[in-house]
Amino acid sequence: MVSPARSWRMLAAISASALVLAACGGGDDDDTADPGGNGDAAQGDGTLVIGSLLPQTGNLAFLGPPEFAGVELAIKEINEAGGVLGKDVTYIEGDSGDAQQDVANPTVDRLLAAKADVIVGAASSGVSFTVIDKITSAGTVMYSPANTSPKFTDYADKGLYFRTAPSDVLQGRILGETILADGCTNVGILSLQDPYGEGLADNVGSTVTDGGGTLTPDAAVFYDPAASNFDAQVNQVKAANPGCIVLIGFEESAKVIQSMVAAGVGPQQKPLYLVDGNLGNALGEDLPAGILEGTKGSLPGAEATEEFRKRLATVDPALKDFSYAAESYDAVITSALAAIAAGNDSGEAIAKELPGVTRDGEKCETFADCVALLEDDKDIDYDGVSGPIELSDKGDPTSAIVGIYSYGPDNKLTAEVDYQPGELE
User: Fold this and answer.
1) Is residue 60 very low, low, confident or very high in pLDDT (cuts 50, 70, 90)?
2) Helix (H) or strand (E) holding 369
3) Which of 142, 243, 247, 274 is the most buried (most CB within 10 A)?
4) In this structure, are strands 214-215 and 296-300 parallel, antiparallel, or unpaired?
5) How far is CA 242 from CA 84, 238, 266, 383, 406, in A?
6) Residue 201, number of CB atoms within 10 A of its CB
7) Does pTM surpass 0.85?
8) Within 10 Å of residue 393's Cβ, how many Cβ atoms?
9) Which residues lie across from 91 on neighbouring strands?
10) Model pLDDT for residues 97-151, shown as the tens digit of each residue
């Protein structure tokens, strides 16, 4: 990261002067140039505007509360610490819906009309693919706390797409290794059919087969998440008689598990493994008591510490799950730090600085501490509540943690979690 040799408070005044010149017709007319250095990036308006594109409705709505809380907490703490470039960060909340609805596009239109510099979301990879071109073509950063599809790594995103959640290359590898270590070498995979499900199924499956196991059937069985009945797909997996089953899904997973129980291949008959899209305490609320006991699942991200949970409770006291709260928080914090490092709140300028504020500099773990280093013209390396982050030039975390969780007899996740670190190229 190249840190400009100027104080961010001075930059606030310079930015304001630049706005006056622009209003009078002065300055460089080419403020939409493809970024090739901070001087070539579009100039922001002096106020960092964060929009959220997260699930309030749809089949991932159960993931929404912790993600919204993470965003809101970060903005609250940033503004309490003095804001960005001398001004408070502005926040605009938005619903992403799911891939079965057309909620995300109108939300994005509203956020872009409000001049959002960074849009945090979507949570669903499938939803993100429907709006990524619109967001990045507008010169706005798209920063997902939960997208895990490997297809984003090499997507033509104009250098404006980032994520704090690691690619499912890592989650799939760690979950597959966990399954084999548990002694299951004959694995059935039942998955929703969308970019997330397909990518994760492929990575779990390849890890199993590379490790000497087999897939039964010899490929994942996919289903439509909007279907009203999943018996046909469940019976297809049952007929293959796997030793254990991986279920990759979202909110519909409770219905799939009910179908599995009715078919005699429920979690108490066949060991069940879940993933980040369906892992959580909300899943157990719609299932018979004790049915999930012993079930394991994977969730990218470091432990949500008790201290962080207490801070989240200041913005949402009703939180009961914390999936991707830390990743949402860190997406906002790193965006703010990148704007300060650039001395410019535009999406293009933020994008150029984002990888640099997460790696190869002096370590810092809070917004205030990192800002103090930037004021001293230091390169910084922010390590957040979600882990080390370490963004690559392609916008992916290259170092991350995946937790392996398990359910107790009350259908709730237990406190015993195996956190496994991993590296990605």
Assistant:
1) confident
2) helix 367-375
3) 142
4) unpaired
5) 54, 7, 12, 41, 21
6) 25
7) no
8) 10
9) 50
10) 998 889 999 999 999 999 999 999 999 999 999 999 999 999 999 999 999 999 9
| H or E segment and range at residue 423 | strand 418-423
| Cα distances (angstroms) measured from residue 315 to each of 75, 230, 302, 310, 311 | 11, 38, 21, 10, 8
Structure tokens at 183: 């002694």
CA angle 319, 321, 325 (to 5 degrees): 85
Nearest residue to 348 via CA among 139, 156, 143: 139
Q: Look up residue 182 and give its two tokens.
A: 């548990």
Count of residues for the chain?
425
Closest by CA position to 103, among listed 70, 144, 55: 55
Q: What does the DSSP 8-state code read for residue 88?
A: P
**Token pair for 408:** 């107790």
| Residue found by looking up tokens 């009910």 in the block | 258
Cα angle 161, 390, 142; round to 5: 15
Question: Which amino acid, residue 75?
Answer: I
* Sequence-separated (6 or more) residues with CB below 8 Å from residue 24: none
